[in-house]
Amino acid sequence: MLDCGIQYLNRSATDVDCGTGLIAGFYTLPDKAMEPSFSMQFEMQSDLSQLEQAREFVRNFCRCNAHWPVNEEEIFQIQLAVHEAAANIIRHAYQNQCGKRIVIEGACLVDRIMFRLNHWGLSFERDSVPSPVLDGTAESGYGLYIMEYCMDSVQYNFDGKRTNTICITKKKKG
C-alpha cells in the first residue's frame, strides 16, 4: 500500500514547535539581512487529500512567526496560493500520480514571507498558459490567476537537472 504520509521536520502536522522550526542552510543568500529570521519545511506526497495539511502548514508557519505578524486575510491569501501551486504540481507536474514528493519551504525575511514548493515532476513554462477568461464559463484553469492575484510575486524555476521550484512571495505592508 502506498504511504502518502506527511512530515513537518519529522513532526506531525499538528505538533509544531515554533522555537525549533529553523532549517540550517534554508536559503543561501549573500546579504546577511536577506537571511530568513524564521523558516520551516513541510514534506507531502502528491495526493490531493493532503492539500488540507499544506494549508495547515502555512497557517502554523504564519502564526508561529513572531518576527512578522501576518493578519488573517494575508494568511488566507498565502494558503490559497500554496494550495493552488501544490494542486497544480499534483495534477500537471506529477499527472495525478500519488506518492511523488513535494517539499514546501516557508521563510520569513525582513521585508517578505516566501514559500518555495519543490518538486521533481514535469517542468512548466508560465508563458505557455494563457490568462483565463473571467466570464464564468470555465470550470477550471484559474489556479495561476489566483496565485498571481493573491501574492506579490510568483516565480517558476527549473535548476537544469531535476528540481522544479515555484516561489511565491508576499511583501510586508508598510
Structure described in brief:
With about 170 residues, this protein is an alpha+beta fold. Helix content is about 25%, strand content about 20%.
Write a structural description.
Helices cover 25% and strands 22% of the residues. It is an alpha+beta fold and 174 residues long. The chain has a single domain, classed as Heat Shock Protein 90 (2-Layer Sandwich). The model is unreliable at 1-31 (pLDDT under 50).
Brief descriptors of the model:
174 residues; alpha+beta; Heat Shock Protein 90; 25% helix; globular
Topology, element by element:
Layout: E1 38-45, H1 51-64, H2 72-93, E2 101-108, E3 112-119, H3 143-150, E4 153-158, E5 164-171
CATH structural architecture: 2-Layer Sandwich
Shape: globular
Calculate Rg over CA atoms: 16 Å
The number of distinct β-strands equals: 5
User: Which class best fits the helix and strand makeup?
Assistant: alpha+beta
Low-confidence stretches: 1-31
Approximate strand percentage: 15-25%
Question: How are the strands of the biggest sheet laid out side by side?
Answer: 1-2-3-5-4
How many structurally independent domains? 1
CATH superfamily: Histidine kinase-like ATPase, C-terminal domain
Per CATH, the class reads: Alpha Beta
- The helicity comes to 25-40%
CA distance, first residue to last residue = 50 Å
Average pLDDT number: 79
What does the largest sheet look like? 5 strands, antiparallel
Give the helix tally. Answer: 3
